[in-house]
């Protein structure tokens, strides 16, 4: 059974789960923290900007069913790649958009896709600021953050509404 992982940061990890969770070939998704300097960070420390971590999701997927390139395309469509200091209502470096790669192949795919997005003009010439960084340790978030959209659907919908307006404005023209 083939399995690979992908790690994406694009604002609050609550809203980053469902777009991937609904795809065939996705085996498992966990919300967590990565890209920082402190081992085993807590939500409170990350939110207080004490650790350098970014909220992210780690996705285990079957590449014979869904490719990394397909995951990258989904990623672009659920983030604002022009906002380096947060996503939508989520502000701060812990919400910055980052594609964390774990292989040369992932780097090549992510870079090619980012260049294609720049060339597309979808964002009216605004710079695409999403970073592509080498993945480091990924620390799973506290259990109450996992599968948040299922645990608290009303709050999830409130968080998701602003993101959806942006997606509709840019991707469904």
Automatic annotation (TrEMBL):
Oxidoreductase is among the record's keywords: yes
Protein name from the UniProt record: Peptide methionine sulfoxide reductase MsrA
Pfam families for this protein: PMSR (PF01625)
Molecular function GO terms recorded: peptide-methionine (S)-S-oxide reductase activity
Alphabetic keyword roster: Oxidoreductase
Family as reported in the entry's similarity comment: Belongs to the MsrA Met sulfoxide reductase family.
Residues of the active site: 12
Catalytic activity, as annotated: L-methionyl-[protein] + [thioredoxin]-disulfide + H2O = L-methionyl-(S)-S-oxide-[protein] + [thioredoxin]-dithiol; [thioredoxin]-disulfide + L-methionine + H2O = L-methionine (S)-S-oxide + [thioredoxin]-dithiol
Keyword Oxidoreductase in record: yes
Domain Peptide methionine sulphoxide reductase MsrA residue range list: 5-157
UniProt function note: Has an important function as a repair enzyme for proteins that have been inactivated by oxidation. Catalyzes the reversible oxidation-reduction of methionine sulfoxide in proteins to methionine.
EC number: 1.8.4.11
């Amino acid at each position: 059974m083939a399995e690979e992982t992908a790690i994406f940061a694009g604002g609050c990890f609550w809203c980053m789960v469902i777009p991937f969770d609904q795809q065939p070939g996705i085996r498992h998704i966990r919300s967590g923290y990565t890209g920082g300097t402190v081992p085993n960070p807590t939500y409170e420390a990350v939110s207080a900007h004490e650790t350098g971590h970014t909220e992210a999701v780690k996705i285990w997927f079957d590449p014979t069913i869904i490719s990394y390139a397909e995951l990258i395309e989904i990623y672009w469509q659920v983030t604002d790649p022009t906002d380096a200091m947060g996503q939508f209502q989520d502000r701060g470096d812990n919400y910055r958009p980052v594609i964390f790669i774990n292989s040369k192949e992932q780097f090549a795919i992510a870079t090619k896709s980012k260049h294609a997005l720049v060339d597309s003009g979808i964002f009216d010439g605004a710079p695409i600021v999403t970073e592509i960084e080498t993945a480091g340790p990924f620390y799973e978030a506290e259990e109450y953050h996992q599968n948040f959209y299922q645990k608290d659907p009303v709050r999830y919908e409130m968080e998701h509404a602003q993101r959806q307006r942006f997606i509709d404005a840019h991707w469904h023209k």
